[in-house]
Amino acid sequence: MRDSFLGPFTIIKLIGKNAVEVKLTEEFSRKHPVFPIVEVEDSPGPVSKIIRARKIRLNGKDQRQYLVRFKNQTADKDKWLAEDAIPDGNLHLRRFRASRRTEQSHQ
Length: 107
Fold this sequence. Notes:
Chromo-like_dom_sf; 2 domains; single chain; Chromo domain-containing protein
């Protein structure tokens, strides 16, 4: 299930000790709905804000990642995510970039 991150999906039921059945969206309707439990992560919920950015080298390519804070979560739950893995990323990235421009203009 690792195309970076897919979902979130609702877990319908536990199948044995090692798999879950999920309710897939229309986009993924051709996939089998049962996944190994080791591939499933708890969704931290909606994004509160993007805190900062960094560049890393991944598979020989430069990639920008963003440190994301989730609503009703503490800083220890912050995650570094690629741009395409941020829920409602366009909105939060616009806000983050605007706040950085404002900070830079005040220096």
